[in-house]
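Backbones bend. To wit:
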Amino acid sequence: MKRSGCTISASKVVPDTSNAYSPTLEAICVRLIEAYTVENWWPADSQFEVLVGAILVQNTRWVNVAKAVDRLREHRCLDPLSLSRTKQTDLQEWIRSAGCQSVKARRLHSLAAWVVESGGLEALELMPTSDLRSALLKVHGIGEETADAILCFGFSRRVFVADQYARTWLSRTGLVPESAARRYASCRDIVEPALTATTICMQGLHAAIVMHAQSVCRWEPECDRCVLAKRCSFACGSTVARDIRC
């Protein structure tokens, strides 16, 4: 992922778990990260662009987000102040490719205004993670998943993004009980303390889970192609849930 001129290298993504041979949560997560190319997974030219992308990607694919971001860049409004001053009608037109443009335009305005009123990104960087999460959740249109994605990728905090892809995968593997996987915060609170991963590893893990869910661990999982099949309860015939939804 590119953020503020910094690129994650493969050597930094995977932690040293050379002695982790047991099928622990961390060992399995490391194996998943090793199976995918996670560098530059969330491309962005600035910190604020990461925040904007987190709003635009709600309920759509990144290819659509990229087109919207390019339009915003063309009109020079990828900074909090400029975006907060942009007309709603213009913003809707520029982000049309991301879908739900009227809803997302309001959310982007709220996000930009919040950053400006908070004293800018520099001031927000000084806030403890728990306080920053609470503040994000008060912004219109930002729920738990979007808040954690912003914390992890936008503010480089050591946070696990327990989106539906992650919760379904963790339940199928048997790493997290199905009852906990159905609740966002419960799943996150199990995974975060169990990992010694750095922020960069958390970013790589989220990227790997998304790629794995989209290519292998889908609604009809292709277990014969899964690098974790021998360690997965679902692949081994357990009657765990096929899909996890809140």
